[in-house]
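Worked example

This section walks through a single chain of length 59. The input is the sequence exactly as stored; nothing has been trimmed or padded.
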Amino acid sequence: MTAGLAGLAFFTSHSFWTWAAPILIFIAGSVLAKFAFNRLASPLEKQRDLEDRVRDPPA
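Given that input, the structure is written out below as tokens.
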């Protein structure tokens, strides 16, 4: 309940951070996911991922 109210208060305030924060969180998550994949994936898994992207490029 408290988290819901905090989220509601955050999104009803009309400030710059209301729009910037979700975008920054998305960018940070994407960068962290890419870093984790490159660090943890085997070379074979990276090659398969690249082949899959060439066959079916992301929209």
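What to look for: The chain has a mean pLDDT of 86.
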